[in-house]
């Protein structure tokens, strides 16, 4: 399958050392050793265009972030039980990007830990346990989050306190999607109540990335949050994927004109350094703060805080959210032009540089082109463009390049996709 001897050895070594639970991307795996901006380089010096990785959103190995990490590492790295300015400077800068109602920040190391903490806080505040998520969502690795991450598949059962709703799919759902989505949420919380489970939270990725990337119409999430609150639940926005400029705005929820009760974040927060956390309305934290002490050994350490602060500075100084809006619009326009030539392109959607492209076998029936999508992903890899697919039928290309992507690089992606679809 195109592997050289060294790569074959590495695959066998991984299997021997890491065991069977790890998966590689591609029939022909990629061995990356270096990155710069939206480019990645393999061990032989081949250059790949990264259209997939949403962690190094500021660009791979961004020198400002690398320097901030190195400088703080060379000085001291402790934890939040000693006084330190950096975590406070960071909390202040981070909170300044949110509506004033979200007044406290707490830090973790992964998005999963942030969601886990958010659920503990929500349970303490509401006294309920019932959670509503979308039917192909992913919220993390802990056992509590696996129970509410239906994208993990049937081998990982949902909790009894978890109800799912169909994703807000405007492509298949029609014009009444926003009202139906809100009504589904109301009905899901009602089902929980009938089983004696009090509502706790509606937890959604504000771009519905693993469900298939759903951004439109702007505002539909406000209606959904209203439905959750009417049921007595909190609205938690999982911004692990959409956050930090990806959608062309700082936060995905801004597109919908809604203020969440809590926001969880991670992935690009340290541009590759493991930093994550949440922001919350202070009044919601009172009960949890009274009951529990919170200490996360690595969460909010000075090195992580320095990385996070550097990311916020780079985002602002390089205008990366603005670039995501501009280049994202250029990319979607180009993909729509391709759609005129390739019948398989059923829908192009998204916001900023969070783009979904749905491949279908028939535009009228919208039958998912699952096999074709798999071929496209692997063929793009052979053209040295990295991408992946999601959605219930794995027929939706998930396009999420670093936010520094240029219009020329977007054109390279479009050109490669054009050739692959023609081939
Ligand atoms: N929420 C969402 C929406 C995610 O996409 C992910 C990671 N893919 C997580 C939470 C979990 O984050 P982590 O892998 O950092 O624990």
UniProtKB/TrEMBL annotation:
Chain coiled-coil ranges: none
Keywords associated with the record: Aminotransferase, Pyridoxal phosphate, Transferase
Domain of life: Bacteria
Pfam families listed in its UniProt record: Aminotran_3
UniProt entry tagged with the keyword Transferase: yes
One MF annotation (Gene Ontology) recorded for this entry: transaminase activity
Required cofactor(s): pyridoxal 5'-phosphate
InterPro entries documented for this protein: Aminotrans_3, Aminotrans_3_PPA_site, PyrdxlP-dep_Trfase, PyrdxlP-dep_Trfase_major, PyrdxlP-dep_Trfase_small
SUPFAM superfamilies named in the record: PLP-dependent transferases
KW Transferase (keyword) present: yes
Family named by the database record: Belongs to the class-III pyridoxal-phosphate-dependent aminotransferase family.
Protein name as it appears in the record: Aminotransferase class III-fold pyridoxal phosphate-dependent enzyme
Species of provenance: Rhodovarius crocodyli
């Amino acid at each position: 399958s195109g592997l050289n001897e060294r790569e074959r050895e590495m695959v066998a070594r991984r299997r021997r050392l890491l065991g069977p639970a790890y998966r590689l991307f591609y029939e022909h795996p990629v061995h990356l050793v270096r990155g710069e901006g939206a480019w990645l380089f393999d061990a032989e010096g081949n250059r790949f265009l990264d259209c997939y990785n949403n962690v190094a959103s500021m660009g791979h190995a961004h020198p400002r972030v690398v320097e901030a990490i190195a400088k703080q590492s060379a000085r001291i790295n402790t934890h939040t039980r000693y006084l330190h300015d950096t975590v406070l400077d960071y909390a202040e800068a981070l909170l300044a990007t949110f509506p004033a109602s979200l007044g406290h920040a707490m830090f973790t190391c992964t998005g999963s830990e942030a969601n886990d903490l958010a659920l503990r806080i929500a349970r303490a505040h509401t006294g309920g346990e019932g959670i509503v998520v979308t039917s192909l969502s992913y919220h993390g690795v802990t056992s509590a989050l696996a129970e509410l991450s239906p994208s993990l598949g049937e081998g990982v059962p949902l909790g009894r306190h978890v109800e799912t709703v169909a994703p807000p799919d405007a492509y298949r759902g029609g014009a009444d999607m926003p009202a139906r989505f809100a009504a589904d949420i109301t009905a899901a919380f009602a089902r929980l109540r009938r089983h004696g489970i009090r509502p706790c939270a509606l937890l959604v990725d504000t771009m519905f990335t693993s469900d298939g990337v759903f951004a439109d119409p702007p505002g539909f999430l406000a209606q959904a949050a209203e439905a959750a609150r009417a049921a007595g639940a909190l609205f938690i926005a999982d911004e692990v994927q959409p956050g930090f400029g990806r959608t062309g705005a700082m936060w995905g929820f801004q597109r919908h004109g809604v203020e969440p009760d809590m926001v969880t974040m991670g992935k690009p927060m340290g541009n590759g350094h493991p930093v994550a956390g949440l922001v919350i309305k202070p009044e919601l934290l009172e009960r949890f703060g009274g009951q529990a002490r919170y200490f996360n050994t690595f969460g909010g350490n000075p090195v992580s805080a320095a990385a996070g602060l550097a990311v916020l500075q780079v985002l602002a100084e390089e205008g990366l959210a603005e670039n995501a809006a501009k280049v994202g619009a250029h990319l979607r326009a180009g993909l729509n032009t391709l759609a005129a030539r390739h019948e398989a392109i059923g829908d192009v959607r998204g916001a900023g540089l969070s783009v979904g492209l749905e491949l279908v076998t028939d535009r009228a029936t919208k039958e998912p082109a699952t096999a074709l999508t798999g071929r496209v992903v692997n063929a793009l890899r052979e053209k040295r463009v990295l991408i992946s697919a999601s959605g219930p039928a794995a027929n939706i290309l998930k396009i999420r390049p670093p936010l520094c992507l240029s219009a020329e690089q977007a054109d390279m992606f479009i050109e490669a996709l054009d050739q692959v679809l023609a081939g």
